[in-house]
Fold this sequence. Notes:
Elements: E1 4-8, H1 15-31, E2 37-41, H2 47-54, E3 60-63, H3 80-85, E4 90-93, H4 96-101, H5 106-118, E5 122-127, H6 131-135, H7 139-150, E6 160-164, H8 178-195, E7 203-207, H9 215-219, E8 226-229, H10 236-243
Parallel strand pairs: 1-2, 1-8, 2-3, 3-4, 4-5, 5-6, 6-7, 7-8
Bound molecules: 1,3-dihydroxyacetonephosphate.
1,3-dihydroxyacetonephosphate binds at residues 8, 95, 165, 170-171, 207-210, 228-232.
Amino acid sequence: MRPLIAGNWKMNTLRADGSALVVGLIEQRAGEDPGCDILLCPPFVSLGLIGDIIAESPILLGAQDCHKEESGAYTGGISAPMLSDAGCGFVIVGHSERRAQYNETDFLVSEKARAAHENALVSIVCVGETLVDRDADNTLSVVEEQLLGSVPKGANAKNTVIAYEPVWAIGTGKTPKNIQIREVHDHLRMLLENNFADGNEFRILYGGSMNSANAGEILSIKNVNGGLVGGASLTVKDFWGICTSL
Ligand code: 13P
């Protein structure tokens, strides 16, 4: 399957930074198809601007979160229909930063993913263990509970992407050993196959300190079907380096 490389800009970039970044990526992409789909997830307020710039390019647009409800009295909320309307095709849900900082539960994440699917958005559902979980040898049971609790009924390989992001690898420069990544991705694949008719076709991304130096190796691991990139998605050189490392 064609890999997906997604840039999660998190709470970074003003309009000028974001547009310079995306213009640079479009230039690179115009000269070469790196053999993967490329997705950018800028902050909400830049979606219109970035969406306009990438409109004629193959680069895809996504958001970093959505509300579970479609509209109403939810001050500050951004709904899935709004994201669709703004030109998004994807939305990240259940990122570990949102789980930790906003107390998001598996059930809430599944509601957000459901809202995404009902509004023609592909959800990128994130799972991942903390260092405490890993040290206690609970990694597989933790990601299993998160996956089964966070992916809603009606999910399929067309409307859902899974992202495995070990919390301790995010922004730390640390990555699991290849064999550890493989073990988790194999487990997630088995769960998807057991629970969804097209479970063998879901893309499972790896995220956590991915960079242009380690991406080639990580992306060649079985059942790793792309990357969810934070810090290294903020410069053209680093992000393009990951896209072309397959
Ligand atoms: P880093 O690539 O900065 O470790 O972040 C990963 C991540 O959280 C992407 O969603």
